[in-house]
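Workshop exercise sheet. Pairs work together: one partner reads the sequence aloud, the other fills in the structure field after running the prediction. Swap roles for the next sheet.
Pair: D.N. / O.F.
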Amino acid sequence: MGIIQELRTIIKGKVAIQGADVLAPEGWIKDATVLIEDGQFISIDAGNSPNGFDFVNAQGLQMLPGIVDLHGDAFERMICPRPGVNFPLPMAIAENDRNLLSAGITTFFCSITDSYEPGLRSRDSARALIEFILGTGKQILNCNHRIHIRHEEANTKGHEELCDWLTSGRIQLLSINDHLPPAGNEQMLSRYLNGLRRRISMSDEEIKEFIVQVQQQRHQGYKQVQELVELAHSYGIPLASHDDDCEEKVLESQRRQVAIAEFPGSIALAAQSRAYGAAVLMGAPNLVRGGSHVGYMSVAEAAKNHVLDCLCSDYHYPSLFHAPFKLAELNLMNFEQAWTLVSSRPAAAAGISDRKGKIAPGLDADFLLISPNDSLPTAIASVYITGQQVAKYSIKN
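Structure field:
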């Protein structure tokens, strides 16, 4: 047995976290003792630590459920920091893993785009990421990684391979995306070109010619998506829509029995999504920056109108830790309720609330110890996943 494996075996025994103020499902438990055995919470109360447990002094700290991030793609910048400049996956994703932990993210749905684009968002890149995360990555990554495939409707190549990923259990969340600009829509084309230039090295003329070719695949892609939707439901894989910006798209998502509505375009569309049972997911950077970078509704508006269910990191991990503090600061909801938007509610939306998202007996012991009254990720003193301390930081008093 190697040294690291031996240490993990020792840590995974019995641990008592004592003295922290704990955010439990029923509210704060002051100066609590939290008992952990074999990676799961077994009790949370105000009593003393029993014999046989390794004692961790958490006096003066707060204990929060670990963050569950359903949609994050900032890892792309680790792989490809400049157009056409790629770094080895092990280096990039290992660096990303540390960034996740430093932002308090303990469960990460790695949002991998399965696109018709060459390069970073291609099927080849998606395959390489999945193989690494589910293979070698299991030995070197500390954050609990799950696979979220963002399938572009117009990507028709390798359909059988994608179906196999669904049926073999490689994918834990499937979202249906359509970022391809419709013919004649110059505004959407300009926005798409700006994003594409950051990912691949092609001239504008080459890109426009490429888009025309891909647009011819839309009809076939739509048919394939119907099969993907059916497979997802058959295998219990949650389904998400993406950027529903009109009533027709919301109705299509309803027909597909979507569980998560990612970034709906307006209050009315978000309310319509919630009415058929979808959880509305929005990006924490939207709140931190004061609005959507693409002109959709703001998170603050969504919170005021009670159409916000979950937050995700989207493209910036630290925003997800900061967002609940911001919601409380803006008096949009209390902190306890706001923290559920990054923990228990995303876990429920993804169908993993029986294991993740709360500090409660029987659930995985994923949690943060933080310095109180500090809304920046630098408040994090340590991060635990299934009862193991996976990150420890110095904090200023």
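Discussion prompt: Confidence is low (pLDDT under 50) at residues 1-11. What would you look at next?
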